[in-house]
Amino acid sequence: MPDVKTKRDYRDRDRGSADDDHEVRHFAEQNDVDPDQVPDLIRKVGNKREDLVEAAKELRERS
Q: What number is the average pLDDT over the span 31-60?
């Protein structure tokens, strides 16, 4: 979150972060996976959101 709220940019919106609990929970809810699985997905496929969504989809199909 930016210190100056009027100066926001969205350069990293296509990236996921395992360090931000809110972002992990939000991604988990959006993609119907357990929040504990999200950091493992990020380690496995990287932090590109497009790849994470695909990996979450594959994870759901295997379960």
A: 94
In a domain, 8, yes or no: no
DSSP secondary structure letters along 23-40 = HHHHHHHHHT--GGGHHH
Whether residue 14 lies inside any domain: the answer is no
Position 13 in a domain: no
Predicted pLDDT of residue 6: 72
Residue 51 three-state SS? helix
Check: CB of residue 55 under 8 Å from CB of residue 44: yes
Residue among 26, 31, 29 nearest 54 (CA): 31
DSSP SS3 for 15 = strand
